[in-house]
Amino acid sequence: MAFTSYCLVCGGIGCEASSADTIYQRICDGVDAAGILDDVQVVKTGCFGFCEQGPIVKVLPDESFYVQVSPDDAESIVTEHLVKGRAVDRLQYREKGSEATPSKAISFYQKQVRIVLRNCGFIDPEDIEEYIARSGYVGLEKALFAMTPDDIISELKASGLRGRGGGGFSTAKKWLFSKQASAHQKYIVCNADEGDPGAYMDRSVLEGDPYSILEAMVIAGYTVGADKGFVYVRAEYPLAIRRLQHAIGQAVDRGLLGENILGSGFSFSVEIRLGAGAFVCGEETALLMSVEGKRGMPVQRPPYPAVKGLWGKPTVINNVETLANIPVILTKGGKWFSKIGSETSRGTKVFALTGKINNSGLIEVPMGITLRDIIFNIGGGIPNGKAFKAVQTGGPSGGMITAEHLDTPIDYETLTELGSMMGSGGMIVMDEDDSMVDVAKFYLGFTVDESCGKCVPCRIGGRKIWKLLDTFAAGNGTLEDLEQIERIGAWMKTSSLCGLGKTAPNPALSSIQHFRSEYLTEETV
Amino acid sequence: MINLRIDGIPVEVAPGATVLDAALAAGVDVPRLCAHEDLSPSGGCRMCMVEVDGTSGLQPSCTLEARDGMDVATETDPIVAHRKITLDGFVSDHPLDCVTCEKAGACELQKYCYRYDISGTTMGFDLQRTMVQDDNPAFLRDHKYCILCGRCVRVCEEIVGAKAIQFADRGSSTYVATTFDRPLEESTCVFCGSCVEVCPTAALLPKSSIGKGREWELGRQRSVCSYCGVGCRLEYRTRTVTGLNGPRTEIVRAEGFPEAPVNGSFLCSKGRYGWDYAAHPNRLTKPLIRKDLAYEMGLTDEPWDVPDQSPLKAKPAVAREGFVETDWETALSVVADRLARAAETYGPGAVAGLASARCSNEDNYVFQKMMRGAVGTNNVDHCARLCHASTVAGLARAFGSGAMTNSIREIRHADCIFITGSNTSEAHPVIGYEVMRAVRDGASLIVVDPRRIPITEHATLHLQAKSGTDIWIFMAMMRVIRDENLADEEFITQRTEGFPAFAAGLDDITVEEAARQSGVSEDKIRTAARIYAGGIRQEGESRYPEVREAGRGRSTILYAMGITQRSNGTELVLTLANLSMLCGQIGKPSTGVNPLRGQGNVQGACDLGALPNVYPGYQKVDDPAIRSRIADLWSVPADDLDERPGLTVVEMMHSVLDDTVKAMIFMGENPMISDPNGAHVEEALRHVGFLAVADIFLTETAQLAHVVLPATSAMEKVGTFTNTERRVQLGSSVIEPPGEARPDWQFIGEIGRRVAERLGRTSLRWEWDDAAAVMEEIAAVAPIYGGVRHSRAAGDGVNWPCPDLDHPGTPILHVGEFKRGKGAFHAVTPKAPAELPDEEYPFVLSTGRMLYHYHTGTMSRRSEVLDWKQKRGYVEVNTADAEKLGVTDGEPLVIESRRGKIRTAARVGTVVPPGMVFVPFHFREAAANLLTQDENLDPTAKIPELKMCAVRVTNPAVQSA
Description:
The structure holds two protein chains of two kinds.
Chain A: E1 5-10, H1 13-17, H2 20-33, E2 40-45, E3 57-60, E4 64-66, H3 74-83, H4 107-110, H5 128-133, H6 138-146, H7 149-159, H8 171-180, E5 187-192, H9 201-208, H10 210-224, E6 228-234, H11 238-253, E7 269-275, H12 284-291, E8 315-319, H13 320-332, H14 334-338, E9 348-355, E10 361-366, H15 371-378, E11 388-393, E12 399-402, H16 412-417, E13 426-431, H17 436-450, H18 456-473, H19 479-495, H20 499-503, H21 506-514, H22 516-519
Parallel strand pairs in A: 1-2, 5-6, 5-8, 6-7, 9-13
Antiparallel strand pairs in A: 1-3, 3-4, 9-10, 11-12, 11-13
Helix pairs in contact in A: 2-3, 6-10, 6-13, 7-8, 9-10, 9-11, 10-13, 17-18, 17-21, 18-19, 19-21
Chain B: E1 2-6, E2 9-13, H1 19-25, E3 49-52, E4 59-60, E5 71-73, H2 77-91, H3 108-115, E6 132-133, E7 139-142, H4 151-159, E8 165-168, E9 175-178, H5 194-198, E10 204-206, E11 219-224, E12 233-243, E13 246-255, H6 269-273, E14 288-290, H7 291-296, H8 316-320, E15 323-325, H9 328-346, E16 351-354, H10 361-375, E17 380-381, H11 389-398, E18 416-420, H12 424-427, H13 429-440, E19 444-448, E20 461-463, H14 470-483, H15 489-495, E21 496-497, H16 499-505, H17 511-518, H18 522-534, H19 545-550, E22 555-559, H20 561-564, H21 569-582, E23 593-595, H22 602-607, E24 614-615, E25 619-620, H23 624-634, H24 649-657, E26 663-667, H25 671-674, H26 678-687, E27 690-695, E28 707-710, E29 719-722, E30 727-731, H27 744-758, H28 771-781, H29 790-793, E31 798-799, E32 823-824, E33 843-848, H30 864-869, E34 874-878, H31 879-885, E35 892-896, E36 901-909, E37 916-920, E38 949-954, H32 956-960
């Protein structure tokens, strides 16, 4: 049975918060009342990414892109568009100064390459059939029946996939280490404890395409020899948790998870573990402690989790975005994947573009794209005609990148060279009005609160820097204070136990590097 | 082995060792505040960072695995600069009040600040934690000084298994807290003070020593703990105080020390806090004579009748009114006179004596010599009769020696630990630590016990057998092992005898029947059998290559009174011996059959012949050759020595009432509380013609004595104690005895001399210059102690058998050959307990110890901390039964058996299953032994069935309403 048109309602949590669920219900009711149930399929999808303009409703095949829709608009979408075939002009998105712009022509989407977000905004995340219809589980089938674990690792190696959680470690290597470790029990853990302020890439994938994560975890389990997986999701993502739980149920029912998957003889089960709001639990060793039911505190590496992880057993821990790439890589091949992106960093990266930017939202771009492209083409530039000042990448652990580096192609290496980092993909744009001291203080305040308290440089150093920043924010800082920040910052960077402490001083150090004048007045220099 | 260089010094370490381990092995003192040799590494303090050639930056040496060829620098300029700023950070959040700080001189933060010249902070002083928690008498928690190293948190989880504390809050507000910040007393804290021991600063301080002196002012005296059979070594910290009677030494706290051979740095609550009884004001300081006897002797003008009220109910101060103080000469002469007179009039067999598992080897040796040599009777026994008599009998028959076959420290290397009838973590807490250490490292733990005792929390399998059915489980396990060909055929053939008869006996046992009898699933029984037989770890294979090659891991059996205090105790012991031999799990490291002995010197008291059938060294009294050898050594005619085994504890009490025993002398024993059927014991003690009691307090038993002799505590005399693993260790004189109290061996020897003179046995020698001289005589008499001297017992001590001075001691028995030659299998058939529940008495009562108290409470109930933690007795009752009885936690219950009745508070929970109650026996007000049986003794060992009798449980509130 084929439908003549499809009405996609964004069910990401941002749109849901703006009554997307009511919009969806009313459209469904309207379609039913109009007697066109057989012609129109109404789907509540995952996030479209263009959150600035939500709630969003898209109608296919004509690609009408309705933005800032309210529940009251549902009636006209049904009666006008779905029944009579006439687009509702007043709801259509318009690029600056142009006519109604169909989704394919929207510049926000123009430079994006959607691999991770391939299904977000297209499928009903609560219907496994839709996932399967879009090549879901092709990768798993191939893995189980046509590939050996070594083949899979070779394919991953060919793809050049690196960890999207921020570290950028080769996924093929991580899996290989875990595969090589001898143990009776191994685990696969999905890190879905997304905690950076302003970042929601993982949430969108879990809300919009939970099956891709489950498929990837089974592939990982088969590759390294693990039969048990955990998804560690922060409890603040209730919708993601609900959809994931639902997806697990459907996958088990269809023999795609659990005992004897697809009749292959391989079994793998997945459990959800909820985080309790600690940012540090996004750090992999702390996360594993938390999965074990202990207080999440990082553990010195090595040994790495791939060798000694959950309950001391070899554990592959991958972030949501990394895993979302896996089924596609197996389906289309590592070679295909490796053609996307930059020399050292293959594939795409999802960023949460926020701050002083016209088109805030979730974007997926090929590695190697320039910041200028992201901010001015996809992001539509700075609102109110203000001047761009800096962009913070890598969240609270990252650094500030200034206008002079806008044309740098970004990947893991270049961002690090610029004194920032890829991080998980938060990207916060600041304009000329923003005080860099305040921004640094905000981030340090965050990491001071979120430090686990275990190692001294992070516990004490972070707080001392925050206090000094507070002095500067009040205009009372001295050159001596500035040097003290740099001294304590260096101590934290070189000797903190985990990534949180090692990177916590970055916002302070990078703002001092680029905006020293905002710290010191002429008198204090 | 791994070879690396630390600051240029070549060093070799075992695989798995850290760089910090290697540095310490090389003698390089790398600074560290969170690392501790017994704990998992944390990596939080960042002080131990080092440079490794070929890698960039600094790395924490405590978490970094040592690798071949590493070249490590520990004290370069960048490292020093790093440590300085780290200490700078630490002291910005730590009071710099070292001038008055209790910890000054022992504070590790202070030590490193001195080393790196940090006298203040450049970061701004900013104290994050100011809370002072003073919620218990044991230790103070002053969060100002806490540097969040986490040693306390780790020791509590990893060593003690209590998990009472954890970090709370985050970032700079982090602090160490109990769950939901509840008072420690309401947490799972076991008050062992291990956290205090490992704390590097003044954040955790023992309250007993606050204000009593600085680190460098306090004295140190190492000794042996005076409580249980584990035999922990500890270090008493002391000070000298000058009072009206001149200077005297005072203990201010007890500490562990890493070199202690059994316990390392760790102690339990009794060891760490239970020593203050020695300085209790109620200590006996002068000999006492009961007023009726004193009146008769003309020492008082006040006539006196012994009150009818039971000593179990008397207040100590009131009890004292029944006595007059006297001098030693008077006291000793009347004791000697009465003992000698009874022997003269009714024969030596009319005198009976109880020695003590709490007194030293020297004390016990002299006591039995007094009884055997001077009085001429073998009527000497002690409370080992009530704990491990069946072990001594059973293991001697099976193996030839009735003691732990292996040493305590081997437990940590076991692959499978099989515990039955031992509440290890309460009765032998430090052995509990050892078990948990092994389990944490991956060993399997199987527990067979009717109660859900604390160690079951760590168990791989808990077989919660109904009381008295454990024998079915052991037998069924052996059936499984035999049927599944898991037995060690080679071992059985080469090392044992009696196997065919034993194996045939297994035909009558089925797993199905065992499951039916015990209530434990067949599956669990089978799994337990396979794990034990194969020494299978949680993860499967043994981590020891040589063991893997042998195809069988190491399994060790630990047991205690749940096995022995039974009417078929000897058979149960034989069964465990059978099990070990069947699987070849004996005579090798980390295997064996290991009875955990209860009291500090119960092993030694047995070794030294405080038993009616053997001379020191388990030499049988009815063997003429041995008798003549002993007679020679003691310079008495062999005919003067009694040739028949004497009376056991319980038989003595019966004999008093039969009027065959007329005079008794007890040294450090309190049968009023420790012996079964307490009412019967009291009747006997009131009836006996003469009773002398030597003790440190006016115990419930001493209150019935005619003469009471003030003895010294373990802290006041030099003497050796033999722990449960047969390690003879020297106890030191730490403090002066109170008043006129004397070491037991001295006055017992004096009584012996006087009795011997009176009975014409003048050739016996009683003069020893000191306790060391007594040990020299012991070495001559008891071959297993042949090489033991005080000089060797000091330090790490020596495990018997140690036949001569050149012998290194024997930590593992039966290596290559059993003591008796071949190990003997014994066919055993399961027997039911003697007194089963019925309609009238529907509950099973079990008795035993609890963590905070010890034996009859004489010592532990006079310790401030222990008494605070557990003031009263209680009865454990299952939640379901409590509901039926209409009783909630803390409300009274009446427990009644055919022999007596007690009333005590209900402790409602799931430790005991429905239909069972448990009463600890330490509390005179609710004396469990008023209920227990003194009939139905084990036929071989004469041990009473203290672990099982039938009782009725009623709720007095319901009765009265």
